[in-house]
Amino acid sequence: MSSNGEPTSFEVQTSIPIIDYSLLTSGTTNERSKVVQDIGKACEDWGCFMLVNHGVPETLIQEMMDISDEFSNMANEEKLEFEAHGVLDPIRCSTGFNLDNWNKDTLWREYLRLIVHPDFNCPHKPLRFCEVAFDYVKRTRAVALELVKGVSESLGFEASYMNHELNLDAGFQLLAINYYPSFLEFDISRGLMPHSDHGLLTLLNENGVPGLEVLHDGKWVGMGGVPNAFFILSADQLEIFSNGKYKSKLHRSVVKDARKRITLVNLNGPSLDTIVGPSSRLVDGENRPLRYLPMKYSEYLKCQVRLITARKNPFDEIRIHI
Known about the structure:
It is globular and about 55 Å long. With about 325 residues, the protein is α+β, with helices and mostly antiparallel strands. The chain has a single domain (about 10-315), classed as Sandwich (Jelly Rolls). The two termini are about 25 Å apart. Strand 9 (about 210-215) and strand 10 (about 220) form a beta hairpin. Residues about 1-15 have low confidence and may be disordered. The chain contains eight helices and 15 strands.
């Protein structure tokens, strides 16, 4: 921590856990068991990890980056058709500043948010956007669901337990595409304030321009440096469901590179109608007391927006202080 109590920034961290997805899905019994243990340790110690050998083609990821860049390069008048309104609008586009509460600064970014499951929504332009995005989110959702099985087992449950309890077959999946312009386009501070994500697991990919930092042991740690990997973040509903065993990861974007940064962010959560609280299997009276109040997922999404706007932590509404 710095002298004023705020976290300090550091360079890219190479000790972040790396999980081999192929061993989770097609490894031997012993290999899979070891990966499940590693996932649990990563979620508990770091709240994040890098995922390699995930099976999503590099060519598809690049296509998704390219088509997302095309959208960001459209005229503002065209983007107004998809202007943001409510948090559960199927398609939301917005440009502007957000407040960094740590540094009392304002940061610029543009975003496009698409609800892609259980119903798929996508702008009708540019050409082929829907086609590429549909393939991309289908493949990343499959990866996320397999990871949830591993997380479920790491908590001591059956692989299918979390899927059943949280109704993941009808689960809410959001694709958020964030744009941070180059210095040639916008010579001002670019980034995204510290926050945690709603949902269970977030899959993030970037276009090779660094900027992601996570808060680890009281210090801001830069992430990256692993080729063709997804960055996986534990999210709010995973912390709630695990009764605090796996913490939702606080992270931010600080873009110092002069180039344009694009991130593809997949947020994967329960169905909107699911009431999410700590698993009954992880609550045991005085030894393991209830630490979070149950709340319907759709209500949590609205609560999160309201409290972040008021510069408060969404967990303040549901955390039980013991």
